[in-house]
Each structure stands twice: as structure tokens, then as C-alpha cells.
Amino acid sequence: MILQTPILALLLASALASAVALWAAWFGIRLLQHWDLASGSQRQLDLERRTELVSTLFGFVMLIEIAALFLLVFNADRMAALFVGAMCAVGTFNVNGWGFPALYLKITLFFAAALWLILDRVDRLGRDFPLTRLKFATILGIAPLVLAGFATELAFFLNMKTDVITSCCSKLFTPSNEGFAAEMTGLARAHALWLLGAAGGAVLVSGAAIVLRKRGERLFALAGAAFFFAALTAIVSVISLYVYDHPNHHCPFCLLKREYGYFGYALYVPLFAGTALALATGLLKTVANSDSLAGVQPKAIRHLTRLSLAGFALFGIAVLWSIATSQLILFG
Amino acid sequence: MTSWLRRQRALAEYTLAALARRRIKNTGLLLIYAMVIFVVASATLFATALRKEAEVVLAEAPEVIIQNLVMGRHDLIPGDVIAEIDGIRGVASIKGRLWGYFYDRLNGANYTLMVPLDPAMAPPAGQAIIGESLPRVREMPWETAPLFLSRTPGDLVRFDIAKRLSSDSALVSTDLILLNEANFRAFFELPEDVYTDIALSIRNPREIDTIVEKIGRLLPNARLVTRDEIARTYQKLFSWREGIMVLLAGASVLAFVIFAAEKASGLSAEETREIGILKAIGWDTGDVIAMKLWEGGLVSFGAFLLGTVLAYLHVFAFDAGLFASVLKGWSVIYPDFALTPGIDGLQLTALFFLTVLPYMAATIVPIWRAATADPDQVMR
Fold first, then answer.
1. Are A8 and B236 within 8 A, CB to CB?
2. CATH number, domain with residue A290
3. Which of B208, B226, B244 is the last residue of a domain?
4. Domains contained in chain A, number
5. What are the protein's UniProt keywords (chain A) (predicted)?
6. Of the candidates B200, B226, B252, which is a domain's last residue?
7. Are residues A265 and A119 in the same domain?
8. What pLDDT shows up at residue A28?
9. From CA A73, how far away is CA A77, in angstroms rounded?
């Protein structure tokens, strides 16, 4: 099962990321111990030079991890044809106990990677390595995620057996089940839409506050996170129904299939990007307060906010479009 | 944002000019890189096309096939079973199929003899419809030359040719000989009312599992093969062969990566001087690294494009002549078929991951080493 080109590509990317993460973490420990900007010693000079290399390599690997999330999901969707009972990516991820952990780790890594890349970018704008310590401290947190991601991915692909009967999405996303997915499915449709609308309003108001009044960054980050979960709930509970033109098909993964014009990507890509950028504004407000960033930070935050709002707006347009073009009438 | 874009544009412009200055060296690298990508890309493109072909062919296959088993081996199935199964709800149509193999001692080929399911398709008595490769392997001298089949030494059965099948359907019909039912039974000396197997078509795909279960209870000795199972097996087979090819090509990727790292770390005197001058006029390490990454990116992009386009031509215009037999399998009469050209985004992304990532990763450290050198040191 492991001998499929996309699987080989994913494993290669993860192995590479793990090697780099280990090395970067090791360097990070040394940096945290010996970093002293006031010193002009050879060791400090050497550290300063090496941060450039480690940041570049780690940034490269983080970019790969972001791309790998989409490859993983796309490949899982494609592989569903190989498993008895699987109709979409859910079946593939369900084929053994490692599938969903691997996916969740990749999603966590996606957000961690996006935040780290923004930290790195802002750090380079300051003249005196303002965020370097923090950057390498976070690498120590991200590296275990990368390694765990690689391990679960490997276990997932190695333990794939095509004669196992896996479960289809219609078994997982049904209100009669127990568990989180079922809760999301069972939420009343009108409530889900109201929730999404409220979160959208909060995002809009707090985002406007940043752009116009230069305040409310942390609120915006919180609103962005809330919107993310409200959006996922709404997708499962009601938006998917509109896309499928079917009153009982709740699967959030079938959206990614060709039959539905890959519509899921129009929903998920802006949603994930918007959320990551919203989180980054709160992060920058909290950590990027040194003097050398005084001119940079507010500009960067406003820029990120605009991009984030654009992402959420694209998501909103996609949702409205799916409702407007659907043959299904759920209300009224 | 605009300043960032402007910086990248300036870097790209400078890098292109720098690449053009060392034309021969960079063209060499590009060609070797493109060659490596070409091998991997050919394998994935070809396997993707084969998978698609199998999908198209199987779309027309019956949903379920019932085979009789005796001592664990495929055996003839009595015709009275048909009436029994016909009573199951959801079965749209049920037909006994007659097909078998014939080994031709003249040339060592195996033909598939078959009675068409649709009686209107069957040739008149004493005639046959033949597949695309039969005239070729039997070297039939003229268009309507009759076909002689010899079952035992001294035996000769003559069939006139009613029609030749076109090569459009070669993948499934290349070794085919279609007869009518009476001729078929006579040729193989089959009793009346037995069939090779039974084909079911089922209107609603969601009912397949239930119907298979019901037939299983009715005929406990039978083997039931669903179309999905066949499709899965083909997908797995071609994916697996593709994987083997890619893994083998992985060795060449590795060799190339070592070559590229070696090349990136052994900068020529001219290049070191160039970096020294850049740093002396105010570029910092980050700029030099960005410039070198642009260089790597441009070379990768060019090689990826070149390699993939060449692979596309190789597979779809030249029938993957270099390693078709590994992926297709082989036999005495192999169908002569043209693959439907197609590109799959997933495969391309995977290909990009497999070839460009290792190259970028291998060259970053040497790039950094060159970029951090002090200007006075390198210019001395």
C-alpha cells in the first residue's frame, strides 16, 4: 500500500521536515542558552549567522508542511476507491486508527507553520533580531509536532489494508451517533447559520476596529478562532446540504470531490488562511513589542487583518453562492 | 507588499542575468535535472493513463459476475440458476455468458473466444468477428481471408470473417474471436444449458451488496465478483507498479541531489567573487540567500517544465517506448492501443514533491555557506 507516488511524496516531505526540525530544535536549545546580543564574541557572531540558515531551512520546511496538508487530504480522497465501503476521504482516514490523528496533527501543524512563518517574516524586518529568541523557542514546540506528524503518517500508511471494511461518511456524520461529529451534524440548521453569522459579525467589527482605530487585535484573533469553529460546524450542519442538494448528506469531505466541482477547496482554503492570519494579528500584538519593531508592527498587523478579512470574505461569498445556486430549500 | 514584490522582481531579474552569464554550466545542470524528472514523470503519467483506461473499460462491465466453483476451481455453471436469481428484486438483467480460451499452437498466442451477450451482435453461423491483432499474428494474407483453428493435430475448423474490430477497443478486444452460440458450443463440445459464468446488471449501485448477499445464500458454492473489486484490483496493481518505478528512479534522484549539493558547495572563483562584490556594495546575507534561492527555483522550475513536457510526449506521442513493458505487462499478442492523454494534478504535485524538494533541501546549506562568507575574505 505504501508504494504509491503521492504517499512516497508525503513521506519524503515528512521525513525531510523531521530531520530539519530535529536539527533546528538542537540549534534552538544552543541559541536559547548562549544568545547574548550585547556580546561580540565569536560564538555570538556564529549564532547570528546560523540563525539565517536555520530560519531559511525551517521556513522552507514549514511551507512544505502547509502544502502537504492539502496533498494528504487530496490523496486520501483519491484513495477512497481502493477501500471497501469508502466513498470519500473519511473512509480512507478511517481505514485504521492512525488516519484521523495524522490529519489533525497536519492541521495543527498548518496553523503552527503559518504563525511561525509570519513571526519569521516580522523578525527579519527588525534590525536587532527582535523575535529571534521567541522564534527558536517556538521551534522547540513545533519540532515534536513535526515528528509526531511523521510517525502517525508512517503508521497510517504502513497499516493500510485494503481488505478492511471501512466506514463511509454517512455513518460518521449522522445525528443519531454519539460524539463530536454527530453533535455538529445534529445542531439545528438555523442555529448553525445564526452562529456563523454572529461570528462573522464579530470578525467584521473587530477587524474594522484594527484597520480604522488600531485596536482590538486580540479580540480579532479570538473572533477569528470562533469563526473557524462556527464555520466548520455550519459546513457539517447545513452548508454541505446545500452543496449536495440533499437534505441528509452532511459529510465535510465529499465536498472535496470532483463530483461537486472541488467546491470544498473554495471553502476551506480561504477559511484556513483567514483564520491563520487572524491568529497572527493577536500573536504579533502580544509578542512584537520591541522598539525596533515600533514602526513595523502596526503596519504588519493592519496588513494581516486586511488579508484575513479578505479570506473570510471569500469564504462568505462561497457560502452564499452555494446557498443561492442550490436546488434545495431548507427554510420557508 | 508592493515593496516586497518589487524586491523579488529585482532579484529574479538579476538572477536570470547571472544564470545567462554562465550559460553552459547551468544548461548542463538543467538538462541532467530535467532527465531525472523525465524518468519519474513518465512513470507517473503512464500509470495514471493506464488507471484511467482501466476505469473506462470497466465502466461497461456487469456489476456482478457469478462463477461456479468445484474443488475451488472455476467450473461451468448450469443454466437453471438463472431463473432462480432472476427472482431477486433489484436485478435489472441476468445473462449466461459463454467464453473460453484457445491456445494457438501455430504461434503460441492465447485467444479469447466468446459469444456476444447481445444476440444481435453475434455473427451468422460459420462466421467470426475478430479482434485487431489476430490478422497480425496469423499473418492473414487478405482482408476476408478465413480463419482456421486447429484444436488437435489433424483437426481444422474454418470460420469466415464477418468483421474485424477496430483498434479503438484494442485494450479489451485485441485477442477476441466472437462466435455465435451454436458454433461456440460445437467448437468446445459443450453440452446445452451450461455457461461459463453469469453476468448480472443491477440498477441501483447501493443494492449491490444486499443482492450479492442474497445470491450467496442461494448458491453457497459460487464465487461472486463485483465490478468494484475488479476496479480496485487494477488500481492497486497499476499504482504498485508505478510506485516500484518511482522508487527505482528514486536512486537517480538521490544521485542527482548529491551531484547538485556538490556543485552548489564548490563555487567557482568567479561566483565567490561575485558574492563578495555584492556584499561589498551593501547586500546582506539574506539578500544573497534570496538570490540563490531564486536561482534554485528558476532552475527547478525550468527542469520541471522541460522534464514533464518531455515525459508527456514520451508517454502519449511515443507510447512510452522506454519502459512500457514494465508497467503494462506483456504477452504474445499485446494490444496496440493509444492512451488518452491526460494530466492529473495530484500526480504532478507528488512529482514536484519528489523531485524539487530534495534539490532545494540539498542546496540550501551550501548556499548559506557561500552567502555568509566575509567579503574581504572571498575577494582576497
1. no
2. 1.20.120
3. B226
4. 2
5. Membrane, Transmembrane, Transmembrane helix
6. B226
7. no
8. 93
9. 6
DSSP code of B99?
E
Question: According to the model, what pLDDT value does residue A315 have?
Answer: 94
- Using an 8 Å Cβ cutoff, are A132 and A288 in contact? no
What is the ipTM metric for this complex?
0.81
Is-contact A281 A222, C-beta < 8 A? no
C-alpha cell, B374: 566575509
Q: Which of B2, B45, B225, B239 to probe by mutation at the A interface, max A CB count within 10 Å?
A: B239
Q: Say whether both B41 and B94 belong to one domain.
A: no
| Span between the terminal Cα atoms of chain B, in Å | 38
Shared-domain flag, residues A235 and A114: no
Residues A227 and A113 in one domain: no
All residues of chain B having their beta carbon less than 8 Å from the beta carbon of residue A56 are 289, 293, 364, 368
Query: Are residues A56 and B368, on separate chains, in Cβ contact within 8 Å?
Result: yes
Residue at grid coordinates 470497466: B58
Confidence at residue B326, expressed as pLDDT on a 0 to 100 scale: 66
Q: Tell me the C-alpha distance between B287 and B281, whole Å.
A: 12
Structural domain for A49, as ranges? 1-165
CB contact under 8 A, A71 and B353: yes
Q: A266 with A303, same domain?
A: yes
In whole angstroms, give the CA distance from residue B155 to residue B127. 18
Partner B contacted by A46 (CB < 8 A): no
Query: Is A160 found in the same domain as A24?
Result: yes
- pLDDT confidence of A24, banded at 50, 70, 90? very high
Instruction: Give A66-101 pLDDT, tens digit per residue.
Output: 999 999 999 898 888 788 777 788 888 888 889 899
Single-letter code of the amino acid located at A138:
T
Distance CA A323, CA B38 (A): 45
One domain, residues B315 and B368 = yes
Nearest to A52 among B289, B347, B358 (CB): B289
A74 → closest Cβ in B346, B357, B365: B346
> Which tens digits make up the pLDDT trace of A205-218?
999 988 888 888 88
The full DSSP string for B254-293 is HHHHHHHHHHHHS--HHHHHHHHHHHHTT--HHHHHHHHH
If asked whether residues B50 and B68 sit together in one domain, one would say: no
Which tens digit of pLDDT belongs to each residue from A270-310?
Answer: 999 999 999 999 998 888 778 888 888 888 888 999 999 99
- Residues B79 and B216 grouped into a single domain: yes
Q: Is B289 touching A (CB cutoff 8 A)?
A: yes
CB contact under 8 A, A6 and B232: no
Closest alpha carbon within chain B to A3: B243
- Among residues A119, A137, A165, the one where a domain terminates is A165
Answer yes or no: do B73 and B217 share one domain.
yes
Chain B CB contacts of A82 under 8 Å are: 232, 235-236
Shortest distance between the Cα of B293 and any Cα of chain A, in A, equals: 10
**Domain of B324, in residue numbers:** 2-58+233-379
Same domain, B144 and B28: no
Residue B196 contacts A where some CB pair is shorter than 8 Å? no
Residue ending a domain, choose from A124, A145, A165:
A165
Query: Do residue B264 and residue B366 come from a single domain?
Result: yes
Assess whether A180 and A57 both reside in one domain: no
In order of B105, B108, B156, B183, the CA distances from B153 in angstroms are 10, 15, 8, 20
DSSP assigned state of B177: E
- Among the partner-chain residues B243, B286, B371, the one whose CB lies closest to the CB of A3 is B243
The SS3 of residue B4 is helix
pLDDT < 70 regions, chain B? 1, 167-171, 324-338, 375, 377-380
Of A6, A53, A71, the CB nearest to B368: A53
